[in-house]
Design goal:
- With about 450 residues, this protein is an alpha/beta fold.
- The protein is about 40% helix and about 20% strand.
- It has a seven-stranded parallel β-sheet, sandwiched between helices. A six-stranded parallel β-sheet has the order 2-1-3-4-5-6, with helices on both faces.
- It binds nicotinamide-adenine-dinucleotide.
- The site of nicotinamide-adenine-dinucleotide has 27 residues, from helix 7 and helix 13.
Length: about 450
């Protein structure tokens, strides 16, 4: 809990916050293996092609589906049956009477058909405005998401629903996710889905990268932790903690891609999951920016990724990225909304989204390519931001608080999941539904 949050939860704080209408950040429920996936039963509504498959997933997760309760853990609605504008009334009819009975850190998930392909294009596109507004209205840590499920992808939902319903998606809200068709690798053990997999995490010595290493290792992966030699001690500490390996090099070095691919192939027989997390900022407004700042940020945040991806994919797929591989980029809301003093950084972070757009179709059926776009995450990077800007950044989202590195890591783990083969071409913001770039 940050200091404002502790104050807001104290006796005096509650009074002041309530009287002045100040933000009231609710302590978020995060994943813990000892806790049930949801805090209450699920109310499942709507009539379409997904109601059956979703009920099957909910049974597999082990949550109760009820027809009525005083308090719900989640409200899940199959909107694929909505084919025209008049049909949108079903959203109002289902959610209106029950939305106030959603418990703390409750979940709203609406499932639709991608509007591009649906005959009912207008009605399906309309779902987005509904879900984003519900996300803004929910109190006490609640989140709302829209999942567009391709025709034929009805059986590909489990990893996504497990993520969105659980505390793993604590800081993800107002997002639109697309799940496509294709064969899915179901893990033998859902609590260790990455068992037997090798993951490379760049910038793993600290912050978000270290959290990604922790979570992927928790999920069973052998994690190769990469960072610059100057971070050697911290990198070794992370690698020891996760029983992984280290790779010390500067990603911008000419020989970096060759050395990485060689090490992955020789020591680990290839790689399944690649997380491009390393990133730097060199902020200055454009008129005051020197070429060195521009070049350094582009080299680390974007050019090195492109070169490494090319080497890992290799000509004719010979580069070391194994079948059913995963490439995950780390973008930023700055790459979506833009930010003063960050023309260089935002350019690269929008470029990371371009990598997703370019590679996802190219690697379809062989690997997925997605990106996370973190908002305000409590790390050294954000601790260095001046106090007032920092405080504004922290509060300007539907959850009125900053996220934690683990929130980004859990989203990466959902992309990395072997059963997420239908989840490709997505950019998911981990930003508590930030007002920036919304
Ligand atoms: P951080 O500075 O704490 O960690 C970044 C790591 O990358 C460091 O360990 C650093 O040594 C490593 N790195 C930098 N240049 C490298 C190079 N040339 N070769 C190898 N390693 C290199 O940053 P963080 O806050 O943990 O951010 C991680 C990622 O998340 C970055 O891509 C950042 O842009 C992105 N992001 C962070 C936030 C936030 O709120 N913290 C928000 C949006 C996006």
């Amino acid at each position: 809990m940050d200091r404002y949050q502790s104050f807001a939860r104290s006796g005096v704080g509650r009074f002041v916050v309530g009287k002045l209408g100040l933000p009231d950040p609710y302590p978020l429920r995060r994943h813990s293996p000892a806790e049930p996936p949801l805090t209450g039963p699920v109310l499942l509504g709507g009539a379409g092609r997904l109601a059956g498959p979703v009920a099957g997933v909910l049974a597999s997760i082990g949550v109760d589906v009820v027809s009525a309760a005083d308090r719900y853990g989640a409200l899940v609605f199959d909107a694929t049956g909505i084919t025209d504008v008049a049909g949108l009334r079903a959203l109002f009819d289902f959610f209106g009477p029950v939305v106030r009975s959603l418990g703390p850190c409750g979940r709203v998930v609406v499932l639709g058909t991608p509007p591009a392909s649906a005959a009912s294009r207008v009605a399906q596109r309309a779902l987005e405005g509904f879900v984003r507004s519900v996300g803004k209205e929910l109190k006490r840590g609640g989140t709302a998401q829209l999942v567009y499920v391709d025709e034929g992808a009805e059986g590909n939902l489990e990893s996504t629903l497990r993520f969105l319903l659980s505390g793993r998606s604590a800081y993800v809200s107002g997002q639109v996710v697309r799940v496509g068709a294709g064969p899915v690798e179901v893990p033998a053990d859902w609590s260790r889905p990455l068992a037997g997999k090798v993951a490379l995490v760049t910038g793993a010595a600290r912050g978000i990268g270290a959290a990604i290493a922790d979570v992927l290792a928790r999920d069973g992966a052998h994690v190769v932790c990469l960072d610059v030699p100057a971070q050697g001690d911290e990198l070794a500490a992370v690698a020891n903690r996760v029983a992984g390996s280290t790779l010390q090099l500067d990603l911008t070095a000419d020989d970096a891609p060759v050395r990485i691919v060689e090490q992955l192939n020789v020591r680990h027989g290839g790689v399944d999951v690649v997380v491009h997390n390393a990133g730097i900022t060199r902020d200055k407004t454009l008129g005051r920016m020197d070429a060195a700042r521009w070049d350094a940020v582009v080299a680390v945040n974007l050019a090195s990724q492109e070169r490494l991806n090319a080497a890992l994919i290799g000509p004719d797929g010979s580069g070391g990225l194994r079948a059913n591989g995963r490439i995950v980029g780390v973008s930023s809301i700055a790459g979506i909304a833009g930010n003063v003093g960050q023309t260089n950084y935002a350019t690269t972070k929008a470029g990371v989204i371009g990598v997703v757009d370019a590679l996802a179709p190219e690697l379809a059926g062989r690997a997925t390519v997605n990106a996370v776009a973190p908002g305000f995450i409590e790390t050294r990077m954000t601790a260095a931001v001046p106090l007032f800007i920092r405080e504004a950044g922290r509060r300007m989202n539907s959850l009125s608080q900053g996220g934690l590195p683990v929130d980004v890591a859990e989203t990466v783990a959902w992309f990395a999941h072997p059963a997420s083969s239908g989840v490709t071409g997505n950019v998911v913001r981990v930003c508590g539904q930030s007002l920036l770039g919304a």
